[in-house]
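Posted in: Protein Modeling Q&A

I'm a second-year student putting together a small comparison for a lab meeting, and my supervisor asked me to include a predicted structure for phosphoglucomutase (alpha-D-glucose-1,6-bisphosphate-dependent). I've never done this before, so apologies if this is the wrong subforum. The sequence is pasted below exactly as I got it from our records. If anyone can share the structure token output, I'd also love a short note on what stands out.
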Amino acid sequence: MATIAAPPAALQPCEHARRPGGALRPPPRAWSGRRRCCQVIRATATSRGRPSATGSGQLESTALGASAGGEDGDVIRRLQNGPDVRGVALEGEKGRAVDLTPLAVEVIGESFGEWLRDQRPEGEDGEQLRVSVGRDPRLSGSRLSAVLFAGLAKAGCAVFDMGLATTPACFMSTILPRFSYDASIMMTASHLPYTRNGLKFFTKRGGLSSVEVEGICDRAARKYVARKMGLGGGGLGMPPVVMRVDLMSAYAQHLRDIIKERVAHPTHYDTPLEGFKVIVNAGNGCGGFFAWDVLEKLGADTTGSLHLEPDGMFPNHMPNPEDATAMSLTRGAVLARGADLGVVFDTDVDRSGVVDGAGAAINGDRLIALISAIVLAEHPGTTVVTDARAGDGLTRFIEARGGRHCLYRVGYRNVIDKGAQLNADGVETHVMMETTGHGALRENHFLDDGAYMVVKIIIEMVRMRLAGLEGGVGGLIRDLEEPAESVLLRMDIVGEPKSAKQRGVDAVEAFKKYIEEGKLSGWVLDDCGDCWVDEGCLVDNNDHPIDVDAYMYRAKFYDESQRPLGWVHIRQSVHNPNIALNLQSCVPGGCRSMAVDLFERFLLTSGVNEFVDTSEVQKFVK
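Accepted answer (user: helix_wrangler)
Welcome! Here is the predicted structure, written out as tokens:
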């Protein structure tokens, strides 16, 4: 492996492991490979074991014809999950074969590189595109990264390997000075099991849309079929040379600088977190850097933090701020240490949740309320965009503080894109958050960054102490009204995987049709309020509507005395072949009453139960 002198951006080694007072700790093993700063390496692995001949991409295109529309091409298309690519990368899942194969990853990487080339402005054709790649600690990451590098190189891209990284850092690699790559790919499957993996795509303008990823997957499907037919290796035949870079140190410094500048501590500017105890639970994902490289370097005591070292098997619990075990363990650590705050990250750190000093979990609607309270104090009257699973109490919370609440389609990309669209239309919108913990702010490039959200909360926590305010950040949401009940049920779609998407659409559309035809008395399709959306969060009335990546509706239910019981949100999942039912009620027993009515008068009578497994609903109602 040959090494070369690195550019200035890569010359600063990571220092994850320095404790307060200067004592060094051994670095976590999975992070240590990045400490070589910047190296050029030759990726020797491709899905077929060798580079392809120049110009064979033309052979692929002419040879395929309609064949890419067959089953082999659909293997690639089914990997698309909204704006991401996700699949099974390792054996071990019952009933699921490996479909995110090295060949699939290679052709998707190559197709992304070609798509980037197609997007270039005229006059820039001669400049080589620079693409960074990061990954989470999953066991399949190293092997699949090698073929991803090869695919990008075949498309003529210069490849920069960030090693273990976070999804937000991948985007920031296109923004931060001294890096400023043309695009980035994060290899992760977020909170899904260790057997899964996937790809998230970024350019300087942000994450790709579902339609853009669909186009990339269509191109990749043609390549996949050609390779299966033995028709060449495709691409420009560029050698798979990769440069290793340390982006995470620069990203951590970026976060530290934000905290220092915005707190502007009057007595210790460089260590504004002195005297604070913060627990970080990284769930053995990528979030450990936040304890070592952000909090501790600002003076915080992170003793008692949990699962900081990356482990692709995720042996303790899934890294997920919605996971009950993750939140419970973090709560216990906060109370045991008398900490001021606990932080829970998902695997790739684009989501987060927190625990306040009293041990109260702050995720879901609570997290949206907390961020909204902070941002509304800074930007009075701003609009807050959330997905339509948010509760009515959150709407009242936002409006009581002078804000506006726009409920929109489920899907973090949908929520963020809606916020960007509203801003473009002159509607000041600073907060875009999903109830899952995905959150983006206008001040931070419309990027869903779990670490940045925690930075925002920490800054407020320090400011409150400096102002002599009691109660901590949890006190900011004390008046949030929460539903009496909230339930999530899932119905698996049975049959061939290739038919699952259309069957999901059929089931969701049947629910809407039943309401419109009066077959479900008491149910009313919900327009979700003043959000420029009608037909239950599906049809967009803007001049340039956002593309639909999954069908969904929300409907309110009234009992025989016209008393409102709550609502049901039904949607096809973009990640798995199932339909999700979110039920929320303002009265005890309301969710069961709605589920009984839905089960008896829709699922059993509409024919949906013939291709949807309703056993989880049936178990709940009984």
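A couple of things worth pointing out for your meeting: Confidence is low (pLDDT under 50) at residues 1-56, 62-67, 529-539. The first helix runs from residue 29 to 32.
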